[in-house]
Structures are given as C-alpha cells and as structure tokens.
Amino acid sequence: MAYEVTIGIPVYNVEKYIRLTMDSALAQTFQSIEFLVLDDCGTDRSIDIVREYQQTHPRGKDIRIVHQPQNMGIGAARNRMMAEAQGRYFYSLDADDSISENTIELLYSAAQQYQAEIVYGSYERVFVENGEETGRKQFPYPLHIFTEEDLFADYVYHVGIQGMNWNYLIDMDIIRRNHLKVTEVGHGYGEDFTFTIDLPTYITRAVLLPDITYHYYNRDVGKPKKKKILSRKYLTRAIDAIAEKKRRKELLGKCYNSKRISHLMMLDCSFACEMVGRRDEFDEPFTNREVRDMMWHPMTFWQIVTAKSGRFHNMLYWIFGVVPPFLCVWLLKPMIKRYGVSSH
Predict the structure, then answer these.
(1) Which among 313, 322, 189 is positioned nearest to 260, based on CA atoms?
(2) How much of the chain, in percent, has pLDDT values that exceed 90?
(3) What DSSP letter does each residue of 6-28 carry, written as one string?
(4) Are 244 and 267 in contact (CB under 8 A)?
C-alpha cells in the first residue's frame, strides 16, 4: 500500500509513555499515514502494547513494526526507519512525546501548497515532575516561507531553529538523493545534531509554521541522575562526525558558512567541556593535547576576519585550537558551567 506520510516511532523501554504517543499518532486527521514502529530491543512491554494497537485499533492495519537485531541506539533506529519508510514524506515522533491531532494535515498541506521539501511545526515543552504536569512553555516560529537557494540555511544559522530530529515533515527524496544519515554515535552524544546541523544546506524550499504541533515532555529534569562511567569511544564518534562536517569545502563560498562553522565549533566546545569537566568519569580520560587538537578550526585567520558574520565566536574558537594544550584547557574552565558540566 502506498502512503503519503510515514510517522517513524523509535521504541525502547517506554512502557509508561507509549500509549500517549500511539494515541496521538493514531488520532491524526490526515488519513494516508504509515505508522512505522522501530523495536530497539527493550526489556519492557512497550512492543507488546504496540501489538495490541495493531490488533484492536481501527488504523491497526497501518501500523508496521520492524525489529533491530539487538539494541543499537537512537541513531541506528532513525536510520533504519528512514530506510524502511514507505511514505513520500517522513515525520519522526519520539515514543515518549505526543503530537496534535492535526499535525500531519497542517505540515502536509503546507508542503503541497508551497512545494516545500521540508516543513517545521512549532513545539512546546511539557514539564512533568513525579508524574504530574507542572507547566508548559511554547516555542512558536513566525510564519516563514523560503523558496530560493541558501535563504533557509542562512536563516537557520543566523536565527536558529530546534535541532532535534522531530516535528518536521521532510520529502524522502531529499534524504535518498543526498544519502543523508544520522551518525550512529551511541550514549546520547548528539546523534540528532549530527543530522540536523547540516540538513539546511540541502534544502531550498522550506516552511516554518507558527502552529504548535509537537509536545516534548521533560520528565523529572531536576532529579539527580546516577553517576556512570562514560565511554570514550562514543564521544570520539561524535567528535569525528563534527570533524567531517567541518571539512565540507564545497560550502566555503556560501553566505552562511561562517555562521555554520561557529555552530559546529560550539558543538566541539561542548564536547571539550565534557572531556575536561568530567575527565574522571571516562573509562579512558582525554589528554590536554587531545582536547586542544579536537578544537581545530577549518577556517584560516584571514577567512575569519574577513567574514561577514560570526567573526567574534570563530576567532575565539580558532584561538582554542592553536594555543598550547595546557592553555586551551585553562581557557575552557570558565565555559564548563555554561555547558552544564560539573568540574571536578
């Protein structure tokens, strides 16, 4: 059966929340939807609950479950869903969040009206403590329609939009034609950002909608988490993914590239703060030289000072990458708290 839209839902140990997610997905006013559920081999009843929906819900025939061979993490889950999707457009919904009942109808209508390759809805954070909702905060976009090359990317890197891999409807041709994939990092080290940070560079026609279409649940954010040993290999994968994007020479002449680079360097800076501020939590700590070498800047000094934007931040990041290792680490110390890392 041909579908216009695939909603991809990655599932791993979300038994408490999966009914909220499935109810909101299946309540969509738009009809031509494939509900693609990715089983990432959790240990609870999440997939059993999805099978109940398959058997009992009026739209159950449109639910398709695909299974990973083993638990592989969110990056691999998103890649598998995009590879398996049968819809013309793809929409990602995390299995502990929800969407408004007209989400797909709104995004699809805008995609058709403006021949858009990607359409973003606005979103809200829902704060929950001990199972009780404590508040909501909305993040509405102004209505924007982009139809010319580079305008969308220029807007994203100068103004900014959400960096998570949800709440946008994207034409699958964009993903397939450009061979776009999420870097399979593991351990939550920015898999979504390895995909979304450069996604605007492939888009010409885009729409931002002011309608709140996605409800992102922040649960028990104030509760202390158990300290665990951090894996050097996972952070290294994320660093390598950003380094690959820093090497994209075909973007050097783009009006937005200096701001794009400053965003990439900001991610590197956050990684450096992890490497320094949580050094004793890694299974194999990073040396000062490794921290400094990771902060290499892809622009020359002259390219930075003559750029139309991003000069201050790029110069700061450039300095981190050329000073002696001990000085780089010393300069990073004031920034550690800014990135939410506790120094030891």
Answers:
(1) 313
(2) 88
(3) EEEEEESS-TTTHHHHHHHHHT-
(4) no
